[in-house]
From TrEMBL:
It is found in: Membrane. Residues 3-96 form the Serine-threonine/tyrosine-protein kinase catalytic domain. One of its GO terms (cellular component) is membrane. It comes from the Eukaryota. This is Serine-threonine/tyrosine-protein kinase catalytic domain-containing protein. PANTHER family: LEUCINE-RICH REPEAT-CONTAINING PROTEIN DDB_G0281931-RELATED (PTHR48006), LRR RECEPTOR-LIKE SERINE_THREONINE-PROTEIN KINASE GSO1 (PTHR48006:SF92). It is a single-pass type I membrane protein. InterPro entries: Kinase-like_dom_sf (IPR011009), LRR_Rcpt-Like_S/T_Kinase (IPR051824), Ser-Thr/Tyr_kinase_cat_dom (IPR001245). GO terms for molecular function: protein kinase activity.
Length: 122
């Protein structure tokens, strides 16, 4: 196995997944001991919402921030594509991440919450 820019991109994608999910790359006691990439793919392949992959600490954040995390999740999955040829370059990853960030004045402008609040609001 050769170390290439594409393997660096894969590793970067793994780090993004760790940050977004709040999990280590391999946690034997959680997620059936799957590597984080396989765990996320399994979750995304099920009927669970993508927000279930996000770190629980993100609950209650403004919808726009949650939306940005979901977009970042998509970029991370792009980085960990099983085909190295299909992975973006790091330059592309940076450009994609720059497009995700929105200014704070845009937060909270979505019409429906993406993450359900735990409080009992009517």
């Amino acid at each position: 196995m050769n170390i290439t820019e594409k393997s660096d991109v894969y590793s970067y994608g793994v780090v993004l997944l760790e940050i977004i999910s709040g999990r280590s790359a391999v946690e034997p006691q959680v997620g059936d001991g799957l590597h984080i990439v396989e765990w996320v793919k399994k979750k995304m392949g099920s009927f669970e919402q993508a927000v279930s992959i996000l770190d629980a600490k993100l609950q209650g954040l403004p919808d726009q921030m949650v939306q940005e995390m979901l977009q970042t999740l998509g970029i991370a999955m792009f980085c960990v594509n099983s085909s190295p040829a299909e992975r973006p370059t790091m330059k592309d990853v940076v450009a994609l991440l720059m497009e995700v960030k929105s200014p704070p004045e845009e937060w909270g402008k979505t019409s429906q919450p993406l993450v359900k609040q735990s409080s009992n609001q009517s």
